[in-house]
Structures are given as structure tokens and as C-alpha cells.
Amino acid sequence: MSRLRPVKSLRIGSSSPMVLLLVFLYALWLSGCSSSTSHPHSVGPAGHYVEATSLFSKAEFSRALDRTYDLAKASPPNEYTDRARVLRAVIFSGQVDAFKEMSEAYAKGAENTKRPEVKSEYMNKRRDAQQQGSEAAMHLAEVARQLTKGGALPNELTLDAPYPSVEGPAQVSQLAKARDGVLISSDDEEAAATDAQRKNVDDALGAALGGDRAAARTTLKSAPVKLDDYTFAVFLTQKLLAGAGIFDRKHGHDPERFKQLCGMASDLTNVASATLKATPDKDREKALKKLQDQIKTTLKSG
Fold first, then answer.
1. Is 292 a domain residue?
2. Is the peptide bond before 224 cis (omega within 30 degrees of 0)?
3. Which of 15, 57, 222, 272 gets the highest tally of CB atoms within 10 A of its CB?
4. Which residue segment(s) compose the domain that 196 sits in?
């Protein structure tokens, strides 16, 4: 809508009927502009969640996290709170794996290069990725705590989001160069961070649904998808355990956070175990026991 030019020397207190008419018409025009630019669908939890899933579909994960922050912390919860938490769990899980991949690639590059300046550069990049990974891990722990408050997952959890239209690569080529000790450009470094997150979020979608990214791509065409409680509990357990690895003695060396995330992973195996009471499954029970043993081994070695 074009803007009206302001009326010069308009005196509100004037008793002229023409002036009063102009004031009245100007007020109506402002009111019309205000109502025409409001977007009822973008207001409230429903609108915020739609915006978040739209950002997620474009692989704009950081912005999707920003848009779901208030929804995930809503008290009392609304109908989009659990959906937001599930979406955040998937994104943070992907970020944990992405930053771990980056950290390990730069550490390997620092080890393989023969140039001191490249070694120094890659150790700095490794430290940055480590820091970002630790933040993602703690955010994931917060979401897991929100989802399992009371010792169980909420009923009828769904993954309500489209598969990202910009799919991540199967391998991050820039990090392959870095591992060999080849110094990559700042543009390649930025592309590596983007591709690593897209790759690992896509893989996290597959894992959350109990398959791979190809299966997730097909399944999410009919979103929302009801989550299998056991599968999702195991997914969260595995990703918390991966997050704990960021804080072990070989990496971040933060014993308190390491034990905290391992403890949460252990608690989630109990959540997974509870889901098997209604529908016993020997294969799942065996896999869960193996996961519990893995957590114990990790605690001893960390």
C-alpha cells in the first residue's frame, strides 16, 4: 500500500469540518493498513511452529531452533510444545555429530600436516568445533530432560516436519581435505560447517524414525509421523552418549558434564525399557542391554 503524503499544517484542534473529515479519513487509512499487514497465521504457537518447520525445510537449522525456543519452554505446555521439543532434539543431535566430525577432522589434519602454521590453524578450528559441539550437547540434554520429565516420554509423540529440501551430502569433501593436512580456505571452512550439519541432521532424522535418511525422506512426505517410543528413547540415549564423548578425557575433559550426560543416557535406557513392558520384544531387549553395557564401559573409560 502506498503511503499518503502528510497533510501540512494540520491543526487537530481546528473546528473546520473539512479538517475533521481529513483526520477521520487518515485514521481509517492507518487502521486499514494495520489490519491488512497483520498475519493471524503467524501469531501464536501454531504460527510460530509453522515458521519453524518452514525454516527447517530450508535447512536453516539455527533459525528453526530460535523459533522453537519459546514453544519448547512453554508453561503450561501447549499442543505444539512436544512437537517443538522433538524437532529440537533432532537438530541438536545432528549438530552434536556434525561438530564432533569437524573437531576430529581438524585434529587429524593438525596431526598429518608438516606445516607448523597449518597445525596451529587446525588446532584453533578443532577447539572452535569442540566448543560448538559442547553447547549443542548441553542443549540436547535440556531437551531430553524436558521430554522425559516424570520418567517417561509423552504420549503420542510426533515428528511433525518436512524432510529438508536441501539435502546434506553423504560425505563432507572439505573435511576430507582437512584430514589430509591440506589447509582449506575460509569459504571451504564455512561450507564444511554447513554441509556437516545438513548431513548429520538428515541422518538424525533417519535414526529418530528407526531407519536411514532415505526412509525418512519417504516417511516425512506424510508428516506428522507418530514416533515409536522405544526407537525414539534409544535414539536420544545414543545421541546423549555421543554428546558425553565431547567431554571425556581425550576431548573436552569436563568430568562433571561427562558424568551428567552419561547419567541421562542411562536414565533414558530405563525409559526405553518401560516401553517394552506393554509389547515385549526379545531382540529389542537384547539391543537395549548392549546399549546399557556400552554406557557402563564409557563411564569407566571417560
1. no
2. yes
3. 272
4. 41-229
